[in-house]
């Protein structure tokens, strides 16, 4: 009987521990089911309408990053003499980030519209009058409209070149600041009256970006300088400080060394010339002595 009491106590202890552990698991399941504070739910709650909208914004790419949204189109307009401007073609380009900030235009292309019958007649009138053929493009291609950049050329020059034209478009941070318009052939004066062999324009486009001017480090006239604002006082003093003056030896060493060699060579030659006359005299006295000995 005494041996059964410890065994019964041992089994009772195991039963109590098992009951406590099952209750603890049941509490954890309750926390996961009801989402109590500090619990880790097994499944996230269904997203509401606000989270759906935020997820759509994150999944949708920005307009500037999509391959189709960075394409840009803006018109080319022309006028014959003093007539009104009409559509002449469409420029296509791609927006790309500029190194100096903002956006710039790349891969600039022009699709020319064919000339209508009325436009051909107006061009022929310009040839007779030796008038100007004028084009214009919007200064801000991102928002086409006024103001415009205008350029003109003699119609006879285009006719001599068979409507081969060149457009030098100067841009700065995506804005067109100037357009150079020239023909694809020489047009000497007096200009010859010649009709083009074909009424199709052959356009060559050259896109040029703005160049940054050199920065002036300091101004001797006291008008101010951009370098004074960016550089410190010590740096500006080091720039304006004149270099140290060179010594006499540092300035003229290339002349002193050859002159010294010449003087030393001359002294050596003079010394040799003084020794040569005495040598034959001593030799003669030594030669006469044996002769006297022989006579005796």
Automatic annotation (TrEMBL):
Where is composition skewed (Low complexity) in this entry? Answer: 60-69, 286-296
One GO cellular-component annotation of the UniProt record comes to: endoplasmic reticulum membrane
Q: Does the keyword Signal apply?
A: yes
Q: Which UniProt keywords apply?
A: Endoplasmic reticulum, Membrane, Signal, Transmembrane, Transmembrane helix
Query: Which CDD domains does the protein's record reference?
Result: EMC10
Where in or outside the cell it occurs: the entry states: Endoplasmic reticulum membrane
Provide the leader sequence positions.
Answer: 1-23
**Chain spans, region Disordered:** 35-73, 276-296
What is its membrane topology?
Single-pass type I membrane protein
Q: Enumerate the PANTHER family for this protein.
A: CHROMATIN COMPLEXES SUBUNIT BAP18-RELATED (PTHR21397), ER MEMBRANE PROTEIN COMPLEX SUBUNIT 10 (PTHR21397:SF4)
Q: Which family does it belong to?
A: Belongs to the EMC10 family.
Q: What is this protein called?
A: ER membrane protein complex subunit 10
Give the organism the record lists: Selaginella moellendorffii (Spikemoss)
């Amino acid at each position: 009987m005494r041996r059964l009491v410890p065994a019964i106590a041992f089994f009772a202890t195991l039963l109590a521990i098992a009951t406590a552990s099952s209750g603890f698991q049941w509490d954890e399941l309750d926390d996961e089911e009801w989402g109590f504070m500090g619990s880790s739910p097994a499944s996230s709650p269904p997203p509401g309408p606000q989270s759906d909208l935020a997820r759509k914004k994150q999944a949708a790419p920005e307009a500037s990053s999509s391959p189709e949204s960075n394409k840009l189109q803006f018109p080319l307009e022309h006028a014959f003499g003093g007539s009104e401007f009409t559509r002449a073609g469409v420029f296509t380009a791609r927006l790309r980030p500029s190194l100096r900030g903002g956006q710039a235009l790349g891969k600039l292309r022009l699709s020319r519209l064919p000339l209508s019958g009325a436009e051909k007649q107006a061009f022929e009138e310009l040839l007779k009058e030796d008038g100007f053929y004028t084009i214009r493009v919007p200064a801000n291609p991102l928002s086409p409209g006024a103001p415009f950049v205008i350029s003109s050329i003699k119609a006879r020059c285009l006719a001599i070149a068979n409507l081969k034209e060149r457009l030098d478009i100067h841009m700065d941070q995506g804005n067109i600041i100037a357009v150079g318009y020239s023909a694809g052939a020489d047009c000497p004066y007096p200009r010859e009256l010649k009709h083009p062999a074909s009424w199709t324009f052959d356009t060559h486009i050259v896109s040029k970006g703005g160049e940054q001017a050199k920065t002036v480090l300091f101004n001797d006239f006291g008008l101010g300088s951009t370098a004074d604002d960016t550089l410190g006082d010590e740096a500006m003093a080091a720039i304006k400080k004149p270099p140290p003056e060179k010594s006499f030896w540092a300035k003229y060493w290339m002349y002193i060394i050859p002159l010294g060699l010449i003087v030393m060579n001359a002294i050596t030659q003079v010394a040799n010339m003084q020794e040569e006359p005495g040598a034959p005299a001593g030799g003669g006295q030594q030669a006469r002595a044996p002769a006297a000995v022989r006579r005796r």
